[in-house]
Write a structure and sequence with these properties.
The complex is a heterodimer.
Chain A: H1 19-28, H2 39-55, H3 59-68, H4 73-127
Chain B: H1 5-20, H2 24-37, H3 43-55, H4 58-71, H5 76-88, H6 92-105, H7 110-127
Helix pairs in contact in B: 1-2, 1-3, 2-3, 3-4, 3-5, 4-5, 5-6, 5-7, 6-7
Classes of the chains: A mainly alpha, B mainly alpha.
Chain lengths: 131, 128
C-alpha cells in the first residue's frame, strides 16, 4: 500500500491511492518558474510603452504591461485602462494648470514692462523740461 | 516768472513718488504747483492726467491729456497717454490712431516702446 504523508501530516494514502500523486504535483507546482514572455514580446511591450507614453502619459505603460504579460485576465486589463484614464485626466488637469500659469506669467511680465515704459516715458518728459 | 528747472524736476519726481504710493491728493497738489510754475509746458498736465488715470477718472484724464496736447501738439508721450485712456474707454480705433501719431512723432525712445506695447495690447484685445 502506497502511504504518502500529506503536508498536514495526515496519512491520506489509505483513503485514495491517487490523492498522494495529486499532492505531490501540487507540492512541485510552486517550484516551477512561471511562464516568461518571449524576447520579441518583451521588446514589443517596451516599444509600445515608450510610444504610448509619448502620446498619453501612463497609457504606454499600461499597454506595455498588457503586451508583456504583466497583467493577466480581462479584469486586470479593465483595471489598467481605468487607472490609465484616471492618469490621463490628471495629466490633462496638470497641463491646463501649466498653461494657465504660463499665461499668468506672460500677463505679469507684460504689465511689468508696461509700467516700466510708462515711468520711463514720463521721466524722459521730465528730463526734457529744461530744453 | 522763470522757475529753476532743477527744482521743477525735483517736484515732478516727488509728485511721481506720491502717485506711485497712491497718495493722489499730494501728487495732484504738487503737479498743480508745477503747472503754476511752468504754465507753458505740457508736463504738469501730463502728470495730472496720469494721476486721474490711476484714480479711474478717465474723462478728467482725457481732458488733461488734451490740454497737454494743446500746449504741445508734437508731444509723443501725450499721444501715448491719450491712447491708454482711449483703450480703457473701449475705443480701440481712436487709440490706434493716437498710437500711430505718437510713433510718427517719436519712432524711437521710451514713448515709442510704450506705444508699441499699447498697440500689442490693443491687437490682443481686438482678437479676444
Amino acid at each position: 500500500m502506497n502511504h504518502v504523508m500529506a503536508s498536514n501530516g495526515v496519512n491520506s494514502g489509505s483513503l485514495n491511492p491517487d490523492l498522494g500523486q495529486i499532492e505531490q504535483q501540487s507540492l512541485l507546482q510552486p517550484l516551477k518558474a512561471p511562464h516568461q514572455p518571449g524576447i520579441f514580446r518583451t521588446l514589443l511591450a517596451g516599444a509600445a510603452s515608450v510610444a504610448g507614453n509619448m502620446f498619453a502619459p501612463g497609457l504606454g505603460s499600461a499597454i506595455g504591461s498588457l503586451i508583456g504579460g504583466g497583467l493577466g485576465g480581462g479584469g486586470a486589463a479593465a483595471a489598467g485602462f481605468a487607472a490609465n484614464a484616471a492618469n490621463l485626466a490628471q495629466a490633462n488637469q496638470l497641463l491646463a494648470v501649466a498653461r494657465q500659469a504660463n499665461q499668468d506669467e506672460e500677463m505679469v511680465e507684460l504689465a511689468s514692462n508696461l509700467q516700466k515704459s510708462k515711468h520711463e516715458t514720463f521721466m524722459s518728459v521730465i528730463q526734457n523740461i529744461g530744453s | 516768472m522763470q522757475a529753476p528747472v532743477d527744482e521743477v524736476r525735483l517736484m515732478l519726481e516727488v509728485g511721481c513718488v506720491y502717485r506711485y504710493a497712491r497718495r493722489f491728493r499730494e501728487a495732484r497738489d504738487i503737479f498743480q504747483g508745477v503747472r503754476a510754475l511752468v504754465p507753458t509746458r505740457e508736463v504738469a498736465d501730463l502728470a495730472l492726467a496720469g494721476v486721474s488715470l490711476d484714480e479711474g477718472k478717465l474723462d478728467e484724464a482725457e481732458d488733461y491729456c488734451r490740454r497737454a496736447l494743446a500746449l504741445n501738439r508734437a508731444s509723443a508721450p501725450a499721444y501715448a497717454q491719450l491712447a491708454e485712456i482711449q483703450l480703457l474707454k473701449n475705443s480701440p480705433a481712436s487709440a490706434r490712431q493716437s498710437l500711430q501719431r505718437s510713433l510718427e512723432l517719436s519712432p524711437n525712445g521710451p514713448s515709442a516702446i510704450l506705444a508699441k506695447t499699447f498697440l500689442t495690447l490693443s491687437s490682443m484685445a481686438s482678437k479676444s
